[in-house]
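Hi R.,

Here are the chain sequences for the assembly we discussed:
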Amino acid sequence: MIGMENFTFFSPTYFAFGKGQEKDTGMYVKRFGGSRVLIHYGGGSVIRSGLLDRVKRSLDAEGISYVELGGVQPNPRSGLVYQGIELCRKEKVDFVLAVGGGSAIDSAKAIAAGTVYEGDFWDYYQGKPVDQALPIGTVLTIAAAGSEGSPDSVITKEEGMLKRGATGEALRPAFSILNPELTQTLPPYQTAAGITDIMAHLLERYFTNTKDVETTDRVIEGLLMSMIHEAPKVIADPNDYQARANIMWAGMLAHNNCCGVGREQDWASHNIEHEISAVSDCAHGAGLAVVFPAWMRYTMHHNVMRSAQLANRVWGCPMDFADPEATAKAGIEAFRGFLKSIGMPGTLAELGASAEDIPHMAHSACYGNGGKGFVGNYVTLNEEAVTEIYKLML
Amino acid sequence: MIGMENFTFFSPTYFAFGKGQEKDTGMYVKRFGGSRVLIHYGGGSVIRSGLLDRVKRSLDAEGISYVELGGVQPNPRSGLVYQGIELCRKEKVDFVLAVGGGSAIDSAKAIAAGTVYEGDFWDYYQGKPVDQALPIGTVLTIAAAGSEGSPDSVITKEEGMLKRGATGEALRPAFSILNPELTQTLPPYQTAAGITDIMAHLLERYFTNTKDVETTDRVIEGLLMSMIHEAPKVIADPNDYQARANIMWAGMLAHNNCCGVGREQDWASHNIEHEISAVSDCAHGAGLAVVFPAWMRYTMHHNVMRSAQLANRVWGCPMDFADPEATAKAGIEAFRGFLKSIGMPGTLAELGASAEDIPHMAHSACYGNGGKGFVGNYVTLNEEAVTEIYKLML
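And here is the predicted structure of the full complex:
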């Protein structure tokens, strides 16, 4: 990687950010061409909080009709996607509206693409670029996945529990409503897991072999420092609107790729985490809290100065010019300490996995989901290397 | 300003970034609906460099016809805009393509809006929101103004030399081609003026009374640090592609407002600089190099800790906990030293203005262009205050 690579960047999502913005959902659906909507959501929290009712009233006020499909689970499943596609076709839906977090949005994206595709929607999750979909809108309730501004969707197919991603510009939402108030009811553990997910999206981009990427390095570092500053505030006071707001906007910037362009990205840690979720059903962000520091320890020697740069610039560790590795290590320990301080786990056991799961997880990380025996780009890891990384999590 | 304000953010421009991207101009014009194009540009440099020919060949290859209008000047004028509108109507142009820097782009935006408006295009520059325009594309040759990703345009009306801005989502380019190679022929002075303009766009957003804006603060600080890192490299070696690339992407992020959302912004320095340009015809960025440090000195006491934060985080000045003002001052001196090191001026005299111009400039800054006697939001400055700031530039 000699230096900054050619790229294209296209992020046409309309973001409406702030208090009470969900009252305009109907207006935005109309603006972006919707007249018959599928409202897609997860469990009861959006019902209990009254959010779903507010969204419906907003659609009613614009004379927009709708059908509903709830029941999206974390790690959203293909079965519900097939149901949604059938419903959209039967009801002649022309707009898919997700109300919830990353799972509801990713499931909505799959439905939006599948409805207008004559083949099996799963084709898109086996590598076919998504070039067409119904327009999508989102009312976000969790700052974490970044799906509200990304062209990506991850779905798990029940047969074989294959977890795969699709991507394509057609999957960028037409609009996303980001009201930080809606995240204030999240329990601290889920809030912390969301923050960890946001930081992981930044770190997957940070660890790169591409040289001379100071501009995107600095933006990533800035967003990481913002998370370090805001996280303790929101853990101490879940109703801290300002901290919620800073985290929510950072979550979008962390994953719409404005800070990942022109540089190789890694993504091994996400693969390694997926296997833990599959075994233990842990929250994705909590899994990443265990995986990322272990991955950083294992790969540190690949480029000690990059790790030291992160430690010094983001974690404020003094640069040890005689021993940069000491600085790199101090940064990893600072990250671990931070994650612990916001209530995140540090070991496989805390996630509900054990040493016995490692052989299966390591194999599946490298060969499952169409893998060719390797994960990661910053450092290419084979099954043996992934095994060692899992062992660091014991 | 209690904290982060509600906002909307919509940046649908398609960016094609990197070496040789201008060869795809025709493809992008077609993708965004153009079949008959006005190519709008400035002086001879885009002709001499062969860029204009490459762009035309790219349009030819797609079977797209075009007419041309060159002659855009720095501080683009209304006269050429009227010519462009007439030409577009006569030739039934459906797409306006700017090839050049901020001036060519701003002029193209005015023409694109004026062509489809039955009234006088100048209405938009007197406050009417721009809700309609022909689609616009850009092939950028200078990293500075950020107009390639912004919804803004600034035009000078010859009668009375009124310099005013229009804004509206219709003015966001449909696509912008950012090839850092195209900026390599820029002389060092213009390169440095462009970098100063980018930093000024960041600082106009940084100085705010809005509390709790850590996420956007950190992104702004990161982009400033990136400029400080890359500027000396590109001044030392104009052909440093990687430095040019980092600066070019930062120039877009600095002004598409992803780091300015939800916070009050200042913009006094831009107003104060406009008057110097009007008197001396200096480069906008060079004028800002003189204005901004003087403005920072004058306003420092409004919020010493904000100035100290900038000094410490961006310029690396040690925090003087016993005397934060000393840190704030050290930051301003570091900024001045940096600007001098890249060849920017430090006084009005170097720009071609003098003490005798101050009364006129101060009055015009506050009352010209429809002003009500004040400039700025961070600190509201009247004519007397602006006079004092000009005196600091002597």
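Chain B has a mean pLDDT of 96. Chain B touches chain A through 48 residues (CB under 8 Å).

Let me know if anything looks off.

Best,
T.
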